[in-house]
Amino acid sequence: MPQIRLTTWLLLAAVSFPIAGQTPKIEGPMPAKDGETCVICNTRLTTDDKAFLVDGQRICVMSAMEAMFLEDPMTYVAKYRPEGMMFSAQAQSSTLPDLYLFLGIYVLLGLVFGGLCAHVAVQKGLRPWTWFFAGFLLSAVGYVMLLAKPAAAPPGSVPAGLKKVPLTREVAACPACGASNHPSAVTCSGCGATLAPTAPSEVAAVRHQSN
Predict the structure, then answer these.
(1) Could you report the per-residue pLDDT of 37-80, keeping only the tens digit for each?
(2) Residue 159: CB partners within 8 Å, gap ≥ 6?
(3) Beta carbons within 8 Å of 130's beta carbon, 6+ residues apart
(4) Residues near 66 by Cβ (< 8 Å), separated by ≥ 6?
(5) Is the dihedral of CA 200, 204, 210, 211 positive or negative?
(6) Is 39:79 a contact under the CB 8 Å cutoff?
């Protein structure tokens, strides 16, 4: 694939080189014919106007625009050549690359704000996919709308669409501070008070079986 792309670029450069880099052969001026069109302003010409042969191709201009034509003749000659549509200055200044750049930035911002919206939506107990697309399409506007929206689930609860991991044993409350501890804990994780275990430790059971 890289070799194919390189070959393609070399071919394009070879085709465009005669237009961009070659010095044209200009013959004239000579009288224009009645009814011919000016290459600059598309005005109908008379025999008082001028005509030139540029690399053998007849190009006509108004007498008042002769100096303008001679400053950069290939810009106007390209209008009459098929390859000029691809490689002329007019084609290079097309707004199409700007459109691609805008779409790329839009998609990038959409993905960023879509991910942020989905993350916040889960925390608020809202539908993450709905808010992902809201953030993707509306970017910062969708994110601000989500921040202003009240949560659908109280803090600490399991958001809709998610499942809570089941516990193997009921937690035991510390008699001193009320903190939740595993029933096999010997010290409180909140205040460090000594606890009386109400269930055997799974770790101790595994060690006993291994021995």
Answers:
(1) 898 888 898 999 999 988 888 889 989 888 888 888 888 777 76
(2) 122, 123, 124, 125, 126, 153
(3) 121
(4) 29, 50
(5) negative
(6) yes
